Amino acid sequence: MLVGRQRCEVWLLRLAMFVGLLSAVVTVIYLTPVPDLQFASCDRPCHELDWPMICRFRLVLEQHQSMGGWCGDCPKNLTHCFRYGCVIAEGLTRRILTANKQLPGPAIQVCENDILVVDVVNRLPGQGVTIHWRGQKQSESPYMDGVPMLTQCPISSYTTFQYKFRAAQAGTHLWHSHTGNEFLDGIFGPLIVRKADRVEEQRTLYDVDDRNHILVLNEWGSGSAGDFPILVNGVFHKDKLMPKLTVTPGLRYRIRVVHAGGGNSCPFFVSVQNHEMLVIALDGKSIKPVNARTVQINQGERFDFVLSAYAEPADHLIQVRTNCTKMEGLAAVSYNLTEPSRAQPQLQISPLESQITMDLMSTLTSKECTKESVMCLNEISSIHDIPEPLNKPKMDVTLYLPFDYIEASTDHLGRAGLVPRLGNATFMFPSSPILSQPDEIDVDEFICNEHHTPERCSATAPVCECTHIVEIPLKSSVEIILINKDKYSSNDHVFHLHGHSFRAVGIGHDVKDVDIESIKQLDRQGKLMERNLVTAVEKDTITVPKDGAVALRFVATSPGYWLLHDQSASHWASGLDILFKVGETSDLPPVPEHFPKCGSWVGPQFFLI
Ligand SMILES: *[C@@H]1O[C@H](CO)[C@@H](O)[C@H](O)[C@H]1NC(C)=O
Ligand SMILES: *[C@@H]1O[C@H](CO)[C@@H](O)[C@H](O)[C@H]1NC(C)=O
Ligand SMILES: *[C@@H]1O[C@H](CO)[C@@H](O)[C@H](O)[C@H]1NC(C)=O
Ligand SMILES: *[C@@H]1O[C@H](CO)[C@@H](O)[C@H](O)[C@H]1NC(C)=O
Ligand SMILES: [Cu+2]
Hints:
Blueprint: H1 2-31, E1 54-66, H2 78-81, E2 94-99, E3 108-111, E4 115-122, E5 131-134, E6 160-166, E7 171-177, H3 182-185, E8 188-194, E9 214-219, E10 230-232, E11 244-247, E12 252-259, E13 268-272, E14 277-282, E15 285-297, E16 302-308, E17 315-321, E18 329-335, E19 358-362, E20 374-375, E21 397-409, E22 416-422, E23 425-427, H4 443-446, E24 447-448, E25 464-472, E26 477-484, E27 493-497, E28 502-508, H5 516-524, E29 538-539, E30 541-544, E31 549-555, E32 560-566, E33 577-582
Parallel strand pairs: 1-4, 3-8, 9-12, 11-18, 15-19, 19-20, 21-26, 23-25, 24-25, 25-33
Antiparallel strand pairs: 1-2, 4-6, 5-7, 7-8, 9-10, 12-16, 13-15, 13-17, 14-15, 14-16, 17-18, 21-22, 26-31, 27-30, 27-32, 28-29, 28-31, 32-33
Bound molecules: 2-acetamido-2-deoxy-beta-D-glucopyranose (4 copies) and copper (II) ion (CU).
């Protein structure tokens, strides 16, 4: 009996211990924080010892309406104007395209080296899209670069594509649709990648890097020159409706500016009333600080400046102007008057701030550049000297790429019109993405390079529509000389390079009546342009002036297919593009599993018989 009872007690004890342990384990498991699967942002103070985070975002692209029902009584009742889903734009009711019902789309703000996982949900009826992450090199993930028919299939209507990549390039960047007019209609937003304070080169120059201090500028609508508005953070100012950056008197603020482009591709002049701007970065890369009253940038470019809130405590206008329209964009720097003014130790002017102030700092090149009070791209210095081997006189690969428009015919009827041409070819997209479905492209039909042109292009024809590919060995040093021979448009051309950032080492002029062989010879004699091989700035977007030429240098470190293109409003249609294949096919990372496919289909010839 006794023994049995004891045994029973032992078992009970064991059972109790087991249950106790189990509940302890369950409690611990329950309380252990599991990675958040919500679509949470990674917006936090960045620290150099932190683990990178996985940051999930969801961009739902859809048709939306500006000033529609979502805006309620806006602008009569101002609180309604700030409701979720209320897009003000120029204040008219009109059909637009948005990401998450916002204009600009949501700001993606992360720390350097975080992993971004962005679900792009395409709810645009009948429109394929891709999203490009401008400023991110994608050296580990060329499939995530977002160029339709080159790195991926367009995301077809009503499907979702998940972009996954490391935000490896810190700075002020931009995400945008890369497929055509969605870009004009509102599918873009800022992509801000911050460094930890301790590794941020310019950290001593400002006190506050506020997540709200972003200015996204864009042209709105396709109005003809002179009558289209410029939006600042999605708003064309009207009475009290104006974006405001709140500052505390006495502090210095880092402000990030993005030119998101538009239909007329006009460069913008940005200035702040009663303040100078200390420009500290271009295209996300640190530069030697420049004090300027006005900064001019072209579409796709970004700049960061420090605003010292030392002026009269009041509202001061931020003006965004261009020569193309009188409808300037406005925002305000608003001094917070309830906040007591901070001590101003900075007023003992530091050597940097005591330097002379430029009337204009510009990333463009014009006649103005010779003026003492104007600083243009070739005079701006990077904070880091050009590393080897890019500072050598000769590069492994040198490419002269003239571009122009000529009267020619590309259609089968022989009708002539203006056809763009870059390095002898008019770029045409292949029928399947060359990166993810290389074997499905009919090389003979599409591809052209210096050794091969499609059969349909005769040797004597002035233009050939083809997928122009230049092969560049991995790790080689490259110099590209873009030469603007366009005599039909009075505009500059703005080019953007994918996959790499480059040093803009030289800008030349007056190449209008010089043929390409003479240009090469002039360059060999050092007469085409002067090269800055020490401090030239690092960028990903460059303006090639009318009748001018620019030289860009980079080391081809990222294996992949990378587009260099004229970023006129409609990327899709331009034709002034060229594709660089960096590395051998074996150097490319493998195609991700179940990557979407697309291509032409022509049925069996006699299937009805
Ligand atoms: C504005 O709208 C809010 C919320 O709908 C309401 O509470 C408020 O009374 C309105 N203000 C005016 C002046 O109509
Ligand atoms: C553009 O505007 C600036 C300043 O507003 C002016 O100085 C310049 O002459 C204009 N350029 C052209 C080509 O109209
Ligand atoms: C202004 O400063 C006060 C006091 O610190 C703060 O409560 C308020 O939110 C600030 N206002 C704005 C618009 O930031
Ligand atoms: C363009 O064509 C000319 C003449 O056929 C040739 O000399 C030149 O090398 C070509 N340029 C390129 C970039 O293919
Ligand atoms: Cu692009």
